[in-house]
């Protein structure tokens, strides 16, 4: 990959002034060959394979970062959904907790920031191992700091598994209660999906899909600040929206080229296949690194104002078009994240009431994930959480796209209060929730059938 002098100068400016970074290098590791009916051997084999496969991951990422002058913020691992691996050793919840502890030990030994894959795929039904894992999530997350959990409860092909939705809502409430001293922070490491991708490098929803190679490396880029600056610098007065789209597309191309360069070097040095570049605009709490501020740069008074969903559609579409011209292996989520606590502009809009839960839900029909890092009042019921979750899953199922929720019912928290999570997780106002009940609906259970558009064979 050859860069011109102008491209190099533009890239250096993006890193120095506009908060561009490689958000993550994530190694995916297949654990299916670790399955064993003996729990002790199972955990030993899981630990050994992760440590062996990822032994050079952090060192290699650091070397590439220094050589290229590219900030590589996180080094991560994703593994085969644990419910698929742990089922061979029985379905007890305490067995799943032991696996979570093993994953934490392996993450610590390899030096990675997070390890994802404490997960279950339950979009069409649940096995005893799935139930055990979901019930182990609260304790597993409360007793670890690097392990991330997820569950796929819906797909456009199978519909929405409402039994699994309710189980996950209960897990969210329990995980929050177990970490009440830190605002329910365990929930920040739990994502519930519709149409979960198998190659996502971003946490907390990353897992290593069964269609992936034995070991693979993915890269997730970022760059909201770069896109905001590009839009702000458009010369010649107020630009029409198609001109803004073209600018965003060209900017996304440059960002993704850097990601592809890092991916190629990492794969070569680690001796594993190169996976995908996820070109999502992933914000941080830092000023100048916000997706919400990009929307405002387009002319909105504040994120959440009328027109926000349309502006987000322009942004997401242009980002994908530019990124796909820069890499033949775009994957993961690839779009724009709207995590309320991790985006200072989103948090500010929520505090002012411009961004309500309902407006945010509408915008998730466009963005690359869903209701992400949303703080809820601590007395939000399991049934209400399940209802919010089901609504978001429905958007994903009906539109054949990935959607997800990362909800945090803050123990003792009330609407309007702020909660601090720290670091990249940021801070957010607790958003009010509708007082009207949905228990009679969500507790019916069963499957909400797939749409007619799922029948494409």
How would you describe this protein?
This protein has about 450 residues and is α/β, with parallel strands linked by helices. It has a single domain, classed as Anaerobic Ribonucleotide-triphosphate Reductase Large Chain. The protein contains 15 helices and 13 strands. Strands 1, 2, 3, 4, 5, 6, 7, 8, 9, 10 and 13 form an eleven-stranded mixed sheet that branches. It has a two-stranded antiparallel ribbon with strand order 11-12. Helix 6 links the parallel strand 3 (about 115-120) and strand 4 (about 145-155). The longest helix is centred in the middle third of the chain and has 30 residues, at about 240-270. The chain is globular, with a radius of gyration of 21 Å. The two termini are about 40 Å apart. The mean pLDDT is about 90.
Keywords:
single chain, 457 residues, alpha/beta, Anaerobic Ribonucleotide-triphosphate Reductase Large Chain, 11-stranded mixed beta sheet, two-stranded antiparallel sheet, 13 strands
Taking pLDDT < 50 over at least 5 consecutive residues as the criterion, the unreliable ranges are none
Number of strands: 13
| Average residue-wise pLDDT | 89
Q: How helical, in percent, are the residues?
A: 40-55%
Write the layout of secondary structure elements.
Elements: H1 5-17, E1 22-29, H2 39-53, H3 57-68, E2 72-79, H4 82-86, H5 93-110, E3 114-121, H6 128-142, E4 147-155, E5 159-161, H7 162-178, E6 190-194, E7 215-221, H8 224-232, H9 241-270, E8 274-278, H10 291-297, H11 308-326, H12 344-351, H13 357-363, E9 371-377, H14 382-399, E10 403-410, E11 418-420, E12 427-429, H15 439-442, E13 447-448
Parallel strand pairs: 1-2, 2-3, 3-4, 4-6, 7-8, 9-10
Antiparallel strand pairs: 1-7, 4-5, 5-13, 6-10, 11-12
Helix pairs in contact: 2-5, 3-9, 5-6, 6-7, 7-14, 8-9, 8-10, 9-11
């Amino acid at each position: 990959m050859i860069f011109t002098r102008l491209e190099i100068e533009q890239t250096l400016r993006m890193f120095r002034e506009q908060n561009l970074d490689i958000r993550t290098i994530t190694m995916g590791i297949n654990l299916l060959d670790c399955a064993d009916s003996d729990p002790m051997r199972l955990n030993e084999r899981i630990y050994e394979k992760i440590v062996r496969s990822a032994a050079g991951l952090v060192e290699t990422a650091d070397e590439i970062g220094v050589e290229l002058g590219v900030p590589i913020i996180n080094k991560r691992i994703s593994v085969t959904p644990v419910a698929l691996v742990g089922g061979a050793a029985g379905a007890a919840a305490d067995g799943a907790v032991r696996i979570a502890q093993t994953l934490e030990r392996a993450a610590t030994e390899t030096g990675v920031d997070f390890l994802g894959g404490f997960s279950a795929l339950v979009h069409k039904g649940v096995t005893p191992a799935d139930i055990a894992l979901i019930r182990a999530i609260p304790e597993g997350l409360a007793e670890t700091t690097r392990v991330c959990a997820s569950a796929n409860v819906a797909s456009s092909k199978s519909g929405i598994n409402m039994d699994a939705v309710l189980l996950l809502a209960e897990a969210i409430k329990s995980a929050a209660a177990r970490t009440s001293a830190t605002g329910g922070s365990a929930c920040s490491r739990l994502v519930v999906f519709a149409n979960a991708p198998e190659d996502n490098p971003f946490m907390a929803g990353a897992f290593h899909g069964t269609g992936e190679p034995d070991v693979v490396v993915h890269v997730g880029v970022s760059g909201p600040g770069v896109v905001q600056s590009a839009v702000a610098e458009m010369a010649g007065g107020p630009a029409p929206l198609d001109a803004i789209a073209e600018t965003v597309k060209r900017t996304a191309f440059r960002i993704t080229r850097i990601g592809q360069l890092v991916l190629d070097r990492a794969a070569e040095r680690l001796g594993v296949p190169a996976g995908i570049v996820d070109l999502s605009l992933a914000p941080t709490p830092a000023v100048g690194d916000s997706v919400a501020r990009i929307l405002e740069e387009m002319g909105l008074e504040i994120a959440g104002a009328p027109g926000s969903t349309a502006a987000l559609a322009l942004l997401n579409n242009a980002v994908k078009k530019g990124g796909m011209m820069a890499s033949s292996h775009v994957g993961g989520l690839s779009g724009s994240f709207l995590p309320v606590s991790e985006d200072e502009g989103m948090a500010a809009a929520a505090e002012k009431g411009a961004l309500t839960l309902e407006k945010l839900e509408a915008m998730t029909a466009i963005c690359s994930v869903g209701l992400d890092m949303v703080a809820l009042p601590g007395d939000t019921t399991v049934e209400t959480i399940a209802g919010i979750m089901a609504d978001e899953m429905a958007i994903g199922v009906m539109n054949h796209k990935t959607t997800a929720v990362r909800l945090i019912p803050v123990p003792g928290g009330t609407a309007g209060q702020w909660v601090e999570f720290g670091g990249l997780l940021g801070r957010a106002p607790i958003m009010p929730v509708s007082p009207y009940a949905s228990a009679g609906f969500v507790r019916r259970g069963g499957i909400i059938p797939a749409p007619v558009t799922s029948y494409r064979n």
